[in-house]
Amino acid sequence: FSLRLTDRIGKKLGEGTYAIVYLGHFRDDPSSCVAIKKIKVNAEYKDGLTMDAIREVKYLQELSHRNVIALHDVFSSKDQNLNLVLEFLPGGDLEMLIKDGDIHYGVGDVKAWMGMLARGVWFCHENFVLHRDIKPNNLLIAADGEVKLADFGLARSFADPYLNMTHQVITRWYRPPELLFGAKQYSGAVDVWSMGMVFAELLLRVPLLAGMSDLDQISKICEAFGTPTEENWPGVTQLANYVADKAVPVQGRDFFLRQFPTAGPVGADLLMSMCVLDPRKRATALQVLQHKWWTTEPRPTKNEDLPRKS
Ligand code: ADP
């Protein structure tokens, strides 16, 4: 692998929950940049993390799409860490834009960002890859404004969970009800739910359902969208962690329009289709892309006109 990289690993770009990210360069093109993500591997995998684990991650190398971060290479270093050589994305992430009060954006910008996200998710699903951890902080931005899906959960599953617990990022807020209820089998619908939560957050500029615990998350979902029952979701009561909160009726169009007036009726309809409790009735990524919101005014903002991190 390292034939393509310079021996010199560059400056530290940042540090996350379970990894440190460095700048790197291709040897044959020193002006090019890559991000080298060093993942501290869980002791459990220390011996086993050779070919099998790496093969799984390597599969991601074959996913090539404008809206999915490119994984150039994977290698395990002498210190037994897992190293991912990733596309360099210097534009920050969607969470930074949402939280930066100095940045003003409108529904055309939200439409552009959501379109890029939906195309990335659709492409992954077409290739039988689920992301499983979609949240604003995992949606990185390229120099040209393009949004890219990053941080696939697969690599994280090797990470040491006891490392840096205090920095644990709360991904619960974007988790769909089927995962909270402990479903063993799940589908691309998990990513569509998370995409819906990102859509809502882009519009509101605060997380829509910020649960304090998994139970609280379920209760917030029920309050917002309605309580899952056998009637609206056949089989749900059989799931391992099913709990019936107070019976709230399933919310209709008016609710979404009232909560998200800036999305307009067509946008509210799209958001509603992503927030359906029963994963089998939730929109698929393809249905999301085929929705008429994308061609309704205002049109998505062009990349060069999108707001950027300051
Ligand atoms: P987290 O998801 O907790 O922010 P990461 O380990 O994914 O942590 O990344 C840590 C930091 O490294 C990020 O906040 C970002 O500043 C930087 N970073 C990560 N990936 C890239 C990349 N592909 N290109 C440029 N910078 C990156």
In short:
This protein is α+β, with helices and mostly antiparallel strands and 310 residues long. The chain contains 10 helices and 7 strands. A hairpin with a 2-residue loop joins strand 2 and strand 3.
Give the topology, please.
Blueprint: E1 12-15, E2 19-26, E3 29-39, H1 51-58, E4 71-76, E5 82-87, H2 94-99, H3 107-126, E6 139-141, E7 147-149, H4 153-156, H5 177-180, H6 189-204, H7 214-225, H8 253-259, H9 264-274, H10 285-289
Antiparallel strand pairs: 1-2, 2-3, 3-5, 4-5, 6-7
Helix pairs in contact: 3-6
The site of adenosine-5'-diphosphate has 17 residues, from strand 1, strand 2 and strand 5.
Description:
A five-stranded antiparallel β-sheet has the order 1-2-3-5-4, with helices on one face. It has a two-stranded antiparallel sheet with strand order 6-7. Helix 3 (107-126) packs antiparallel against helix 6. Strand 4 (71-76) and strand 5 (82-87) form a beta hairpin. The two termini are 35 Å apart. The protein is of the alpha+beta class and 310 residues long. Residues 161-170 have low confidence and may be disordered. The radius of gyration is 20 Å and the shape is globular. Helix content is 30%, strand content 13%. It has ten helices and seven strands. Bound molecules: adenosine-5'-diphosphate. Adenosine-5'-diphosphate binds at residues 13-17, 19, 21, 35, 86-90, 137, 140, 151, 169.
